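INFO  loader      accepted 1 record
INFO  loader      residues=433
INFO  predictor   begin
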Amino acid sequence: MKIGFISLGCAKNLVDSEFVLGMLQASEVDIVHDPEEADIIFINTCGFIEAAREETIATIHEMHQYGKKLVVMGCYAERYRAQIMAQMPFIDHVIPLSDYPRLHQVLAKIFAPSHTTFFPLSYQRRLLTAGPYAPYVKISDGCDNRCTYCAIPLIRGPFRSRPEQEIIDECRWLISRGAKEINLVSQDTTRYGRDLSGGESIVRLLERICQMEGLFLVRLLYLYPEEISEDLLRLIELQPKIARYFDMPVQHIADSVLKRMHRRGSSVEISTLIDRIRSLMPDAVIRTTLIVGFPGESEADFRLLEDFVRETRFDRLGVFAYSPEEDTLAKDYPDQIDEETKSLRKERIMLLQKRISQENHRRQKNKVHSTLIEHYDPESKYYYGRSYAFAPDDVDGYIVFQSHKQHAIGDIVNVRITDTNAYDLLGNVQDEV
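INFO  predictor   done
INFO  writer      dumping tokens
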């Protein structure tokens, strides 16, 4: 039996896909890259916003053209199972997230009457699709924040931390297989451990991970700004193994908009936090996401946001035009913004941030970055890698460099930056770390 597998959506969904792929591989199922070769095609879907749903539907229809059995799983399957079965009857099986704890039993039925034995999901069978050097580790699932624009609690359920020892064991397992960088992800990473009873916290988890031999870097992704404590800041400042990288979506800066979003923080608290981070760690990278065109966002609100971006000079910034999501409070708010206005506001922020990014990158000239090598292009003879300043999700870009020495993927080298563009830093190797 040959399986094709497509993973859509975020890094957290990718982790789920790697667990499922590991389960399939451990059951001696052949995994193929060409859909033409597959007997069954699995699609791990995303249903977060309208654009993600459109990609999911398009992918399902594209894979249907191959005439193979289709299995649809993941977030879209969880939220729209009834619609999928009614509107796309050509799909053979729909697996919602709620079935994951018994996925081995579900797959046994799908693959019947074969005698293949499937094992439960486990990190010890995880298939690392992007190589072993910088994997993601999911430390919790679900979310309790209930922002008025967000469907994640409706899809993934309430916030649930993984047991601390299970995370530690997975990190050790990954390092033993070559991981140099561990990227911790969840819907609300800073809240880790609050629902557990043994004193677990993101600070304690980080302290334990940093004790591991062979680890070059641990990175936190998806930090809720109001959950970033002074203890966490101090640990990141003092512990060299923790990336000085703050991925914290602030969404907006106008207090009236934040209130309608049900965000807990205020404009003053957000600005104070950013100032605090930069005073403690001038070399810290701050990444954020914004939503423009939220219902009731006035032109004055948007100008306030524009001024905030201009003054704050984020190192990385993504912007989304507000998407009304089913069953969320904001969908029924009055004063919805028209699509043209949302698009124009998004474009204005993106153009502003592009200029800021170019200026920020130019300041990196002559600085040295300890860089994890992830790719080599034999034609151009360029290496591609990342330092603490670049997350591994294809959003931040790369450090692109050449070297007179030959290096292996997974090596860590010092790269002096000689040139820049809007997305990448260019340089030359100084020496190996």
